[in-house]
Amino acid sequence: MTNLSKKTDHGGDARSSEQKLSASSTLKLLMNYARPHRLAFVGVAFCALLGISAELLQPLLVQIAIDNHIVKGEGGGALVKLGLLYLGIAIVSFVFTYLQNNLLQYAGQSIVARIRKDLFGHISKMSMSFFDRTHSGSLVTNVSNDTETISQFFTQVLLSLVRDGMMLILIIVLMFSLDARLAAFSLLILPVIFVVAALFRSYLRSTYQQARSKLSRLIAFTAENLSGMGLIQSFRQEEEQLGRFTEQNRNYWNANLRQIRSNVLFNRTFDILGNAALVLMVWLGGRAVLGETMEVGVLYAFVSYIRQFFQPINQITMQWNTFQSTTVAVERIQRVLETKPDVREPSEPERLPLKLDSIRGEVDFRNVSFGYRADRPVLKKLNLHLKAGEMIGVVGTTGAGKSTLISLLNRFYDVNEGSIQIDGTDIRRISGSDLHAAVGLIQQDPYLFSGSIVDNVRLFREDITREQVMGACRFVGAHPMIMRLQNGYDTHLSERGSGLSAGERQLISFARIVVFQPKILILDEATANLDSETEKLVQEALSSVSQGRTTIVIAHRLSTIMHADRILVMKDGQLTEQGTHAQLLTLGGHYAELYRHARQSGREQLPG
Ligand SMILES: Nc1ncnc2c1ncn2[C@@H]1O[C@H](COP(=O)(O)OP(=O)(O)OP(=O)(O)O)[C@@H](O)[C@H]1O
Ligand SMILES: [Mg+2]
Question: Which part of the chain is the ABC transmembrane type-1 domain (predicted)?
Fold first, then answer.
């Protein structure tokens, strides 16, 4: 679990990335994504305009009712007509607001869905080195929370700018047309509003960012604990972890309360300002009405507009915070999108096609040097030639670099020096999909997806039939085990194939290989979790699958590899011995010693 902490956490402290924020690059990215939906946005603006106009007409109608009819003592027909008109306008406002919301949500959600898809697509093309250094929790945050924040930009920020902006302008126009003097007085309050908003702004932003970073720590902590739950329970660390959780939880709770408090304070301050303006209007307007320089209805309309005036201002200033968080989110997403995979797909002129049905399966490691970090070489000037169809066994000490060799052949990483070739073609010139169709890998702890057994064997490829899947499972001896499961081949496996034993998962991954039939087959400790009975079965299946295929088998159990055409012994990133079982025994080196040990300890039944 500790290695997680070395990884970067995009979801971590937002303040560190704050300096690099650039509102214009945020807008540029968002506008690029928004462009295909520009018609929808025009529609939104149009609907908003109609909706607002309808809303703002209402006080005017009341003003007419008061000044032209009620004050003059006329009631009846005209008032009823005005009432009906008022209702009609309310309905129009409803309809357009509804349309505007739907259009906006449609466009906003489509944009965000697109960003999410691009992001996931990009992440799945990243090299293994990226995942070595990036916290998966932070990528989850990118795909879920950050995109959600961006959707708020469209559904809240943009909407508010359009709708509240228009509303503000219309209200000012209406107020001036009703009574210019009173309108001018109400505008006096604007500078005060700006000062208050500016004072609050940075404080609100910092409380928001703190709450966010505390939340992402809480999420990361929870995720880490979930994946290590078995360990925690077996070492009885529940209390300690709960204590650590409680601390994180309290931090988040505090940060959240602080954020909510400051928000409430900000909003209420606005309310007070609004009410002060209202009092001023009633006082000034009231005197004007008493002095008969203003009609009562006009005062009513004014008071209504003043109330409506503060709402959009408040909204727009609140949106500033959302906009801030959008820039943070966009920046984080952009950082992922702009990270180029270390392992590059070959560009068109240098790419060489690999004909899957005609490749021979020759593999060459030429002077290969590689280290995960520049200062720690793992493989040193390694040379190795695998003949087409050869079966190679690899043994070696823990950490010798066996799995690394395989990762390089799969191009999870690129070599630092030298080259790796398949049939004489540098694998850097082969497209990823060709390479992975040619090279099949079974790992010690095979990954299964949540899905049925059938889907796990055919990896969700619909062109592979159920019969092919069942045939492969029979072939590797997985069939009886699968039939014992509750729903047989349709049994749904949950995350990481929990519900199956490690050996059962390996059997399933063997069936995968039989279905996909790669020309080069790699087994990295692939039978380590099988009992010797089952292993024998798999071995038999394997020896028929590996006919005509180049096969590399890495194993600690010597019985697994002793019949290989050639056995390689690795130590400290170098090949120290190679030859057949008999040759290596005669050589009397490391392999011979390993063999002697294994026999004497009785761990394996090995012939003498
Ligand atoms: N993703 C990684 N990042 C950094 N170092 C790594 C990474 N994977 C492996 N290493 C280091 O590279 C060296 C070789 O590891 P490798 O997994 O190739 O060993 P191995 O021979 O397969 O060992 P084992 O028999 O235990 O599977 C080790 O020292 C290991 O610590
Ligand atoms: Mg290994």
Answer: 42-325
CA 229 to chain centre: 23
301 with 402, same domain: the answer is no
Share of the chain above pLDDT 90, in %: 27
Hey, how many other C-beta atoms are within 10 angstroms of the C-beta on 249?
Answer: 15
| Token pair 């300690």: residue | 240
pTM of the model: 0.73
Residues paired with 394 in a beta bridge: 554, 568
Task: Assess whether 305 and 373 both reside in one domain.
Answer: no
Q: In angstroms, rounded to a whole number, what is the distance separating the alpha carbons of residues 228 and 225?
A: 5
CA 432–ligand 2 middle distance (angstroms): 23
Of 13-17, 267-271, 452-456, highest mean pLDDT: 452-456
Q: Which amino acid is at 420?
A: I
Q: How many CA atoms lie within 13 A of 428 on its CB side?
A: 12
Say which ligand is closest to the CA of 395.
Answer: 1
560 is in which domain, residue-wise? Answer: 356-600
Q: In what order do the strands lie in the sheet with 574-579?
A: 439-442, 520-524, 550-554, 391-396, 566-571, 574-579
Ligand nearest to the CA of 407: 1
Helix intervals (H) in 368-525 = 402-409, 432-438, 453-458, 466-476, 479-484, 502-516
Structural domains of the chain, count: 2
Give the ligand at the shortest distance from the Cα of 394. 1
Per DSSP, the three-state class of 44 is: helix
Q: Ligand 2 centre from 37 Cα, in Å? A: 50
**DSSP secondary structure of 102-152:** HHHHHHHHHHHHHHHHHHHHHHHHS-HHHHHHB-HHHHHHIIIIIHHHHHH
Whether the predicted pLDDT of 512 surpasses 50: yes
Nearest residue CA, atom 9 of ligand 1?
A: 404
Beta strand pairing call for 566-571 and 391-396 = parallel
What is the phi/psi pair of residue 366, to 5°? Answer: -115, 110
Residue 134 pLDDT greater than 50, yes or no: yes
For residue 22, name the pLDDT band (cuts at 50, 70, 90).
low
Q: What digits encode the pLDDT tens for the residues 175-211?
A: 899 888 888 888 887 788 878 878 887 788 788 778 8
Mutate to test the pocket of ligand 1, among 7, 378, 552 (most ligand atoms within 8 A of CB): 378
Q: Which atom in ligand 1 lies closest to the alpha carbon of residue 402?
A: 21
Mean local confidence (pLDDT), 414-441? 90
Whether residues 298 and 426 fall in one domain: no
**Between 25 and 464, residue with greater pLDDT:** 464
CATH number at residue 459: 3.40.50.300
> Is 252's pLDDT higher than 90?
yes
